[in-house]
Write a structure and sequence with these properties.
CATH class of the domain at 1-61 and 105-197: Mainly Alpha
Structural class: alpha+beta
Oligomer: single chain
Largest sheet: 6 strands, antiparallel
Shape: globular
Distance between the termini: 38 Å
CATH architecture of the domain at 1-61 and 105-197: Alpha Horseshoe
Helix content: 25-40%
């Protein structure tokens, strides 16, 4: 077999990018044999790296890379519904074994090419006759671990889409008998996936922090497959295997087994420093930690982002461009407009309750309102789950967060003269003042620039004082004398302080009362004006001051609202030629940094795996196996017991949502859990597969609804739900993708069996 591998796996590699001088001594036809590749450290490393080339760049990868997978399920409706292409084909039920709109780049053939690459690497790196390069054993084992997990991941992507597939674990020989090939069952594929991950995890993690199959990597190794990734693959594979679509009465992957696997994955990641992202965003950048997480790029070293297990490595989401509001500079289309069903899923923050419990009609236009939730249908966007505001632009949502408050500082220092009854000494920027008689005061240097119009003006400094100052005053000086300021009847107190203490005093009353900022002649104040600081008689007072200054604070202008009402600046449109305007009444916001535009793309990248998913995977398995409230003990060292409800509540707490109550029945908890998963993972390529593995596709995906809003006199809004077109993509055959006709025909010719999925 070794000779067969060498014969058939001749790899054509361009000389461009071959860096070693030794590599110039190549066969005359420019091709490399496997001995050539695996006899060189650099070529072996490059081949290992090429196994990652089949990794999906999750994001706007459909309709010519201009819409997300959300557009093909009940999360969204794309505004390109009238344009020839994948969206139009899907919405008009034109899917077939030769035209699958959602197969995209990452189809059956793509992942099997990646598997073949992994198989060749694993076969050759372990063959001493082929792998003759001098490679550190730890590094070599690290590569093997990564490629094993990559192969498992590629198989996971296949079975999520197609169900059971052929299991191929080695390169085919020239004499391979294709008539013996068969499609493995879903369970057999999951066995294979978990076995590959376990084999990788059995590789010891040794001391060198830069090589090997590791938990922790540095930021220069972005794209490296880690041990956390392996556990995430195991968790998702086990969850899917236990789900209604794939579970059989004979299956080993019961909910109990899935609970064991998902709990171990969660415990291991927690034990190795993973945490939900809860960083408070800078002012004016994002509304909350959840929103901030999805516009930040992960740092593989997990110095800040401790939640991301793996992030798509190259393609930013480009929400600003492909799902942008019409008022966003450079936006080309409205793209994936969130559905009313998704909007209805966001709970109420004050009560933690779901606002909509279902619909009393088949078109989902008459919602069953949960009166205990606090939801007001006349103010439908008030008081919702903070994740709603982070994920969706709704009518009158601020397009931006308004930016930062503008702060101007006017540094001042004291002058030795003029002054009155004040002793003055200066040492390293610190001024010490003492009153020596009645009416002590001292002048400062000039402002240096005119005061800007501001909403707040304060005088501030740091000080130490042996006594409290009870009657200080500040005067704004023009033409050599004070004008404006605090009247002598209004006392300013500066408390005693033995350590450096910040003092600030609001000058706005002076501005409002005395016209502060205007000179003696009533004209605009120039930059050569200054302050006078009156200490007021205080025997024995000594005060040392540094960083004496005036600070002004000007809020940014109010952000432009996103007006989705009919005729608004981002108004809804049913005209299929108008791709710039939403079809549903909403625009996608998740992953979008409002500062993105034609000159800057600051939108986030989608997460392939994150800790939040492991919490939710465990919760689903646990409530199905032992109920919502029963604690499940962990097997990992230091792992604590956790119930399904507690796991969900940890995720909700990060979003500042109240916990789910105890005592819910399994059916009640299932409703809340599925709702929570829909909200937490909106637009992250989970919902498309969740409704399939739960076998609720018939209920969810026949069509979506939207909200048409009209504006009446007095800024009154009228809200009308409406149904968009029937899609016809909720039939049972849509539970799995069709295998391309070419593949089916070839395998039927070899095996005599029809490999096609039901209904196709």
């Amino acid at each position: 077999m070794k000779k067969s591998i060498v014969k058939i796996c001749i790899v054509a590699i361009s000389l461009i990018g071959i860096h070693s001088c030794v590599d110039l001594d190549l066969p005359s036809d420019g091709r490399l044999t496997l001995q050539d590749i695996f006899g060189s450290y650099h070529r072996t490393r490059n081949y290992y790296g090429s196994c990652r080339n089949y990794f999906p760049q999750v994001g706007f990868m459909y309709q010519g890379q201009r819409t997300p997978l959300a557009s093909f399920c009940d999360e969204a409706h794309d505004a390109s519904d009238g344009v020839s292409g994948a969206v139009n084909d899907w919405y008009n039920n034109r899917t077939s074994s030769t035209n699958n709109p959602v197969a995209g780049t990452y189809s059956w053939g793509h992942y099997f090419q990646g598997i073949r690459k992994c198989n060749t690497f694993l076969a050759c790196i372990n063959d001493p006759e082929i792998a003759t390069a001098d490679i550190d054993q730890d590094e070599k084992e690290g590569w093997i671990g990564e490629v094993l997990v990559l192969r498992a991941f590629y198989y996971l992507q296949l079975i999520k889409r197609y169900g059971g597939v052929p299991l191929i674990d080695s390169p085919y020989e020239v004499t391979h008998d294709f008539s013996q090939d068969r499609r493995a069952s879903f369970e057999e594929c999951v066995d294979f996936i978990i076995a590959d991950c376990d084999a990788a995890l059995a590789i010891p993690e040794r001391g060198n922090p830069n090589i090997g199959f590791r938990w922790d990597i540095n930021d220069n190794h972005r794209g490296t497959i880690t041990r956390g990734f392996a556990y995430a693959v195991k968790s998702q594979a086990a969850l899917y295997a236990a789900s209604p679509l794939w579970n059989t009465p004979e299956s080993k992957y019961t909910w109990e087994k899935a609970t064991e696997i998902t709990k171990e994955a969660l415990d291991q990641c927690l034990a190795h420093g993973y945490e939900l992202f809860d960083v408070v965003p800078p002012e004016g950048v994002a509304q909350n930690a959840y929103a901030y997480y999805f516009i930040n790029r992960s740092d593989p070293s997990r110095s800040v982002d401790k939640e991301t297990i793996f992030e798509t490595t190259a393609s930013r989401t480009n929400v600003w461009k492909w799902a942008g509001t019409p008022i966003t500079e450079g936006a080309e289309k409205a793209g994936a407009g969130p559905s009313q069903e998704l909007v209805d899923a966001y709970g109420m923050q004050a009560t933690g309750e779901m606002p909509i419990l279902g619909y009393s009609d088949g078109d989902r236009l008459v919602p069953i309102i949960n009166t205990a939730s606090g939801y007001d249908p006349q103010k439908p966007y008030e008081g919702r789950d903070p994740r709603f505001y982070a994920s969706i632009y709704y009518n009158n949502a601020p397009r931006s967060l308004g930016g930062k408050i503008e702060k101007n500082i006017y540094p001042l220092s004291f002058l030795e003269a003029p002054k009155n009854n004040v002793s003055y000494s200066l040492n390293n920027g610190e001024t010490t003042l003492s009153g020596t008689g009645s009416d002590p005061w001292i002048h400062t240097t000039n402002l240096g620039k005119p005061l800007v119009a501001a909403a707040r003006v304060i005088v501030s400094f740091e000080y130490k004082s042996n006594k409290a100052v009870h009657n200080a005053e500040f005067f704004y000086c023009v033409a050599g004398g004070p004008q404006g300021g605090v009247s002598s009847g209004e006392n300013v107190r500066i408390p005693q302080a033995s350590d450096w203490t910040r003092f600030e005093f609001d000058l706005m009353p002076a501005v409002e009362r005395f016209g502060f900022g205007v000179n003696a002649s009533g004209g605009a104040q120039p930059q050569n004006h200054h302050l006078r600081f009156d200490l007021t008689p205080n025997a024995g007072l000594t005060i040392t001051i540094r960083n004496f200054q005036i600070e002004t604070f000007t809020p940014p202008p109010a952000p432009m609202p996103v007006e989705t009402f009919v005729g608004g600046n981002c108004g809804i449109s049913s005209d299929i030629t108008q791709t710039r305007f939403t079809r549903t009444g909403y625009y996608m916001r998740k992953f979008n940094d409002f500062r993105s535009g034609v000159n800057t793309d600051a939108d986030g990248l989608m997460k392939i795996f994150r800790l939040g998913e492991l919490y939710m995977n465990f919760a689903e398995a646990a409530y199905n196996s032992v109920g919502p409230d029963a604690p499940v003990a962990g097997k990992a060292s230091g792992a604590g017991a956790l119930s399904a409800r507690e796991a969900v509540n940890i995720v909700r707490a990060r979003a500042d949502m109240p916990p789910l109550p105890s005592g819910l029945s399994k059916d009640e908890f299932e409703l809340r859990y599925r709702n929570e998963r829909q909200v937490e993972f909106a637009f992250e390529e989970h919902r498309f597969f969740d409704v399939r593995r739960w076998k609720i596709l018939k209920e969810t995906d026949g069509f979506v609804t939207g909200m048409r809003i009209t504006k009446e006199a007095g800024n009154k809004y009228v809200y009308n739900r409406f149904k968009l077109q029937d899609r016809g993509t909720n039939a049972d055959k849509y539970l799995m993708f069709p295998i391309h006709l070419n593949e089916v025909s070839k395998m039927e010719a070899f095996t005599g069996e029809n490999w096609q999925n039901p209904g196709w």
